[in-house]
């Protein structure tokens, strides 16, 4: 465990120097002298670069131009073939598409604890004495650790980065308890400061440029997300936290959405990988987008490239197919102009969007919580913001979509006689976009629109599908995991190296998990 949790100051500093302006002058010196930076030298001048590193690594992206750290394969393995395939945002035919992990979970864990965590810890040390900077760092700590604990369950948290060979795992309940404590502390500082900008982060912050108000709003929007996450296991606390989030101020426009601004040194790994690694649209995405006449279909994906133009179509690959099951059938790639442009420096990376915030409020309103709006009005505004986020701003298109009464359709592959009866004939989603009359259907509608609004950020989508248990995606055609079967994976397994080097802590983590170390064991908050 030591090599996973030791604070590697040099690696973190080198990474951020590659794409921030505050330490480029001494980059060669740092790169040459591996002992140039020690913990006692982590002063305020390195707070911004360290935070920049924690931001980029904390969203599971890697820079091919940064010495000593990982490249875009971080996203491809930690995200692309795990949660993105679990939720059927994309497909490639990797074994994870059939719920068979084969150790793929190790790389995301390694990069989190050797790059993201050390960078964040360095930023905390370098920001000592600056209340506003520490408040923002607390918010980011909640965000990036939340994604990891919702992947694995118990994880190293309190003792992460303590330089010890043996590091204890915290229970998920205890981690969530600390999340809300950190959110309280951060909001108190950012609500009462006279500063409008966190000076230490004004250059290196590639999300909000140190804007205090926007970081405060981010924190409350994150609080709302976490409140819904615990709603089945701690309903009273969930209600209190959700209402507090809205009272304190959550995202109400796309101007407040959190995205990471990319560069030639910190590119969007999804853009670099999806088409070059062979990712394609899934049959489930096709079913929903086509059925709803969703204008995002042609923004996200491309038609197939058959020589006969009459045969070209938006065609999704069924999830869980066997190797070569579909022969030479073509499936839609990602749209090169938007999502599939290798080494794109323009497409920002989605972190937490205002559209999700409105849809979270819509669900909470159905719970009877005070969300300053009706479930329907919040639902419809969430749709508007998601469409606008992707460049759909025509008022008639938006209003027509919100009033859409059609439902998802069987995917194109079912028109092929060889695949007409493989289990895709009846879409799992049967509700329209137009607001329904029953609460049960309304909850499904909110879940479906959140599924679309979160795309392509799959870490949160996977957690939300597990929490709500809404049947939005098709069962897998085949599974190599007898514990999970053809359904949705419930968690990612503890990593192999941890079991061999930090075994006692992993055994304790399994006790805290409350079930075997398999993909079928539900997390603490997943009670239904």
From TrEMBL:
Record's Pfam families?
Answer: SusD-like
Q: Does the keyword Signal apply?
A: yes
* Alphabetical keyword list: Lipoprotein, Signal
Record has Signal as a keyword:
yes
InterPro entries in alphabetical order: SusD-like, TPR-like_helical_dom_sf
Q: Which residues form a coiled coil?
A: none
The source organism is: Wenyingzhuangia gilva
- From the Swiss-Prot or TrEMBL record, give the protein name: SusD/RagB family nutrient-binding outer membrane lipoprotein
Q: What Gene3D superfamilies does the record tag this protein with?
A: 1.25.40.390
């Amino acid at each position: 465990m030591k090599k996973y949790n030791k604070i590697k100051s040099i690696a973190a500093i080198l990474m951020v120097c590659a794409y921030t302006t505050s330490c480029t002058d001494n980059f060669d010196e740092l790169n040459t002298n591996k002992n140039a930076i020690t913990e006692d030298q982590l002063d305020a001048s390195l707070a911004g670069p360290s935070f920049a590193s924690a931001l980029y690594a904390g969203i599971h992206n890697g820079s091919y131009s940064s010495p000593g750290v990982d490249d875009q394969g971080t996203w491809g393995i930690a995200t692309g073939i795990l949660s993105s395939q679990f939720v059927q945002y994309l497909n490639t035919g990797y074994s994870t598409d059939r719920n068979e992990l084969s150790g793929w979970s190790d790389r995301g864990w390694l990069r989190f604890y050797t790059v993201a965590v050390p960078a964040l810890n360095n930023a905390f040390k370098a920001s000592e004495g600056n209340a506003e900077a520490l408040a923002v760092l607390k918010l980011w700590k909640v965000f990036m650790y939340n994604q990891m604990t919702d992947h694995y369950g118990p994880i190293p948290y309190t003792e992460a980065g303590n330089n010890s060979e043996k590091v204890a795992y915290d229970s998920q309940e205890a981690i969530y308890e600390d999340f809300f404590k950190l959110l309280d502390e951060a909001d108190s500082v950012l609500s009462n400061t006279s500063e409008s900008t966190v000076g230490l982060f004004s250059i290196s912050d590639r999300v909000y440029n140190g804007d205090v108000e926007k970081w405060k709003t981010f924190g409350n929007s994150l609080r709302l997300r976490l409140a819904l996450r615990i709603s089945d296991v701690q309903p009273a606390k969930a209600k209190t936290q959700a209402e507090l989030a809205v009272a304190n101020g959550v995202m109400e426009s796309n101007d407040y959405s959190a995205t990471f601004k990319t560069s030639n040194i910190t590119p969007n790994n999804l853009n670099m990988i999806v088409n070059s690694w062979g990712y394609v649209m899934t049959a489930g995405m096709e079913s929903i987008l086509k059925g709803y006449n969703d204008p995002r279909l042609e923004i996200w994906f491309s038609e197939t490239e058959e020589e006969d133009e009459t045969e070209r179509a938006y065609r999704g690959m069924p999830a869980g197919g066997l190797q070569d099951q579909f022969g030479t059938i073509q499936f839609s790639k990602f749209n090169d102009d938007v999502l599939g442009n290798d080494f794109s420096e323009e497409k920002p990376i989605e972190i937490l969007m205002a559209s999700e915030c409105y849809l979270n409020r819509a669900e909470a309103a159905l719970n009877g919580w005070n969300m300053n709006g009706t479930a329907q009005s919040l639902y419809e505004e969430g749709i508007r913001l998601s469409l606008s986020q992707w460049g759909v701003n025509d008022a008639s298109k938006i209003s027509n979509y919100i009033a859409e009464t059609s439902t998802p359709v069987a995917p194109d592959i079912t028109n092929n006689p060889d695949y007409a009866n493989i289990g895709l004939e009846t879409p799992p989603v049967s509700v329209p976009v137009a607001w329904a009359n029953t609460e049960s259907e309304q909850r499904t509608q909110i879940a479906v629109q959140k599924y679309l609004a979160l795309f392509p950020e799959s870490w949160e989508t996977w957690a939300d599908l597990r929490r709500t248990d809404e049947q939005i995606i098709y069962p897998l055609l085949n599974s190599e995991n007898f514990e999970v079967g053809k359904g949705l994976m419930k968690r990612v397994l503890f990593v192999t190296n941890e079991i061999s080097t930090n075994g006692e802590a992993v055994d304790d983590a399994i006790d805290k998990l409350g079930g075997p170390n398999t993909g079928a064991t539900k997390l603490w908050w997943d009670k239904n």
